UniProtKB/TrEMBL annotation:
This is Unconventional myosin-Ia. Keywords: Actin-binding, ATP-binding, Calmodulin-binding, Motor protein, Myosin, Nucleotide-binding, Repeat. One of its GO terms (cellular component) is microvillus. InterPro entries: IQ_motif_EF-hand-BS (IPR000048), Kinesin_motor_dom_sf (IPR036961), Myosin_head_motor_dom-like (IPR001609), P-loop_NTPase (IPR027417). GO terms for biological process: actin filament organization; actin filament-based movement; endocytosis; sensory perception of sound. Residues 184-206 are annotated as: Actin-binding. The keyword Nucleotide-binding applies. Residues 1-307 form the Myosin motor domain. GO terms for molecular function: actin filament binding; ATP binding; calmodulin binding; microfilament motor activity. Signal peptide: none annotated. Belongs to the TRAFAC class myosin-kinesin ATPase superfamily. Myosin family.
Length: 348
């Protein structure tokens, strides 16, 4: 009920994780269809970049304003920080406070004067600014860092690299918010370089009770996790896509027109192959560089036909090899019999 600096930082991280989830599962998915020239009706979804920018913008984000207040000389308190936020985000649709509500003539007793509210992707969260500056300005004195660096314990020494006398910096140490923002940026860079898989956990009830399903709770989670849009994109889109070359190489054995060699382009070969297999046209999409298959059932059908064909080809290879082996053995026996007969006649 009472959210402070720690919850603000946690929710900022959640926003960044939601952003990468949106980009990798919704935005990039739809952009690929457009890029490949596949006929597609875009699915609307909420892009939370505007919320991330509200928090982390290096010039006028909430964290930047908090750092500015921490470094500003003179009397500094949370009131000046909140006043600055109210001036900057007076018209921002994802930010509100008592002052911005008064300007819009909104009566809301739940929002206290020392609080501000952010409309996160998962819902509205109210933050109490009390303690924000103190917690963000959580500095470790240099002499303590140097004392820890001078310890004989290797782990302690490694945890305080800033205590190295040869690397002493006269700059002010980074604030807690700045450090967390840099840490989140590193995490995002790492995640963007991977191909992540998502497991979304849904709580069926609040009491951790077996055999109890609360539809309202589950529906709320599905909405704020972005699963509705994700399911719509997946259902409207294609379950499988692959570049024409590897696709043709894997399945060309299913058609006598493409097996064992295909002289044309990879795309033309894929079109000929799939036309031969007589799949419904709505199941297939031919992009610029990739083949798209809508239903997993179609892909399973392709795989089962391929397995059957592989067994037939293996039998053909075995049959040919056995025939060659028997024929070679017969020819050797025949040649040997002729030589023996010739020598016997000569001797007789």
């Amino acid at each position: 009920q009472d959210n402070g600096f720690e919850q603000f930082i946690i929710n900022y991280c959640n926003e960044k994780l939601q952003q990468i989830f949106i980009l990798m599962t919704l935005k990039e998915e739809q952009e690929e269809y457009v890029r490949e020239g596949i006929q597609w009706t875009p699915v609307e979804f909420f892009d939370n970049s505007i919320i991330c920018n509200l928090i982390e913008n290096s010039k006028c984000g909430i964290l930047a304003m908090l750092d500015e207040e921490c470094l500003r000389p003179g009397v500094v308190n949370e009131d000046t920080f909140l006043t600055k936020l109210n001036q900057l985000f007076a018209t921002h649709k994802h930010y509100e406070s008592k002052e911005t509500q008064n300007a819009r003539h909104v009566m809301d007793a739940s929002l206290l004067p020392q609080c501000f509210r952010i409309h996160h992707y998962a819902g509205k969260v109210t933050y109490n600014v009390t303690g924000f500056i103190e917690k963000n300005n959580d500095l470790l004195f240099r002499d303590l860092s140097q004392a820890m660096w001078a310890a004989r314990h290797a782990l302690l020494r490694s945890l305080f690299p800033e205590g190295n006398p040869q690397k002493v910096s006269l700059k002010l140490p980074p604030t807690a918010g700045f450090q967390f923002k840099a840490s989140v940026a590193t995490l995002m860079k790492n995640l963007y370089s991977k191909n992540p898989n998502y497991i979304r956990c849904i709580k069926p009830n609040e009491t951790k009770t077996a055999m109890l399903f609360m539809p309202e709770l589950v529906l709320a989670q599905i909405r704020y996790l972005g699963l509705m849009e994700n399911v719509r994109v997946r259902r409207a889109g294609y379950a499988f896509r692959q570049v024409y070359g590897p696709f043709l190489e894997r399945y060309k054995m299913l058609s006598p027109r493409t097996w064992p060699r295909w002289a044309g382009t990879d795309r033309k070969g894929a079109e000929v192959l799939l036309a031969e297999l007589a799949f419904p046209p709505e199941e297939l999409g031919f992009g610029i560089t990739k083949i798209f298959i809508r239903s997993p059932r179609t892909l399973f059908d392709l795989e089962s036909r391929r397995q059957k064909r592989v067994a037939e080809l293996a039998t053909l290879i075995q049959k040919t090899f056995r025939g060659w082996r028997c024929r070679t053995r017969y020819q050797l026996m025949r040649k040997s019999q002729i030589i023996i007969s010739a020598w016997f006649r000569g001797h007789a």
